[in-house]
Design goal:
The protein is of the alpha/beta class and about 400 residues long. It has two domains: about 150 residues, Immunoglobulin-like (Sandwich), CATH 2.60.40; about 230 residues, Zn-dependent exopeptidases (Aminopeptidase). Helices cover about 25% and strands about 30% of the residues. The protein contains nine helices and 17 strands. The protein has a six-stranded antiparallel beta sheet with strand order 1-2-5-6-9-8, with no helix packed on it. A six-stranded mixed beta sheet has the order 13-12-14-17-15-16, with helices on both faces. Strand 5 and strand 6 form a beta hairpin. Helix 3 packs across helix 9 and helix 7 packs across helix 9. The protein is elongated and about 70 Å long.
Length: about 400
């Protein structure tokens, strides 16, 4: 065992370990970098250990976040071939874990903890005696006061900051409206998952790419995507990217899940921003989507950090909201026949809070419904639905241009 650095900060323990020996495994032969090919949890509520097998030793950075209690482990770009998570009841302090790409060149493991804890140890063992390198994190139970005293003033500051790159310079004005397509979730955050294992992040990325292709083929718009691969992007950065690109329209694409009533939950739904949700389902969905950052191990922004929370109260934002509603109605009009029984709803979605960009969230369907899942993963359905959304975008801009040319 060789721990090169352990630092105690006023806020939390964090650990930086230097890369060690290379341990070749067959799993790494086809991968570009290190491979994490197994994980397990052992222990009890007093002390719990998380172990992940690695094809070679890597640097790690481990720290804690609260509300909810989480352990964040940052690694370089790792190819994950581990189990999807705990396939049984929570074990000891650990109730779940997940992993994935967090940013270009950076992977992350997030461990959900069911109570206050301290990180007792976090290290990577060298590969030796035909055994792989091993990432080990030991957690011990504590009380809330001790946990909070061990946290930094800003826990997220311990992580490498994720930022949106500045726009290309110079931006060449084409006179075309800029449409930003936002495929929800990504990387470490899979979104909802169907009973057969289809993930929301894959479904919406495939649809977003199809939609981008059709919009670009028409030649009427400049099209940008918040992500083009399986990468996580915080909600705030998605909004910031759209603002930096000078977006005229922002469309966030998702796929819902309502396993309690799979037969009733079917078809597309279009959401706009509102201070108060249109119904309880919209409220629950907004809370779930807004929790995306926490699931990926990002610290949730405080109210003061948010884009003005009561956006609709400000008179300066009413025109933006009106335009969002116009676009939402255009989408609903084009998707007739493939809509949920309540086709238009509203809620406090953080990703729709750009005060200067008409923004809409489109839930394509329900992955919890077998019929919807079949459609959502079919090339023909994807192509036809993308065509309909293109018509909705064309219709929206036709009305805008008729009133006030861009």
């Amino acid at each position: 065992m060789c721990v090169v650095g352990v630092h105690l900060r006023p806020a939390c323990l964090f650990f930086t370990l230097i890369a060690g020996v290379f341990f070749p495994l067959a799993a790494e032969a086809g991968a570009k970098g290190p491979v994490a090919n197994d994980a397990r949890v052992a222990g009890d509520y007093a002390r719990t250990r998380f172990i992940a097998d690695l094809s070679r030793k890597v640097d790690i950075h481990a720290f804690a976040l609260d509300d909810p209690y989480r352990v964040i482990i940052d690694l370089p770009d790792v190819s994950f071939q581990m189990p999807a998570g705990l396939d049984e009841e929570p074990r000891g302090l650990i109730k779940a874990y997940r992993y994935g790409l967090f940013a270009p060149g950076k992977s992350r493991i997030v461990i959900d903890v069911n109570g206050p804890f301290l990180i007792d140890k976090a290290f990577v063992l060298d590969a030796r005696d035909a055994q792989p390198a091993r990432l080990v994190v030991d957690l011990v139970a504590t009380d809330r006061d001790k946990f909070m005293k061990a946290l930094p003033v800003s826990p997220a500051a311990q992580a490498t900051p994720i930022s949106v790159p500045a726009p290309e310079v110079p931006l060449l004005p084409s006179g075309k409206p800029v449409v930003v397509i936002d495929p929800g979730h990504g990387g470490i955050d899979p979104g909802t998952t169907s009973s057969s294992g289809v993930t929301e992040k894959d479904v919406v990325l495939a649809f977003a790419k199809a939609l981008r292709g059709k919009l670009e083929a028409g030649g009427h718009y400049e099209v940008q995507m918040t992500r083009e691969d399986d990468t996580f992007l915080p909600l705030r950065d998605r909004v910031t990217l759209a603002q930096r690109k000078g977006a005229s329209l922002f469309l966030s694409v998702h796929a819902d899940s309502f396993p309690e009533k799979p037969a009733d939950a079917k078809g597309a739904t279009v959401y706009t921003l509102s201070e108060e949700a249109s119904d309880e389902e919209a409220k629950e969905l907004a809370a779930k989507e807004n929790f995306s950052d926490a699931l990926a191990g990002s610290e949730l922004p405080s109210d003061s950090d948010e884009v003005v929370a009561n956006i609709l109260i400000d008179l300066a934002q009413r025109e933006t909201q009106n335009r969002s509603l116009v676009f939402a109605r255009s989408v609903v009009g084009e998707l007739k026949g493939n809509l949920h029984s309540k086709a238009m709803k509203s809620g406090g979605f953080r990703v729709l809070k750009a005060p200067d960009i008409p923004s809409v969230l489109l839930e394509l369907g329900f992955l919890s419904n077998p019929d919807d899942e079949k459609e959502l993963t079919a090339d023909g359905w994807r192509d036809a639905t993308a065509e309909r959304v293109v018509k909705a975008i064309d219709g929206y801009f036709a009305k805008r241009l008729a009133r006030n040319p861009y």
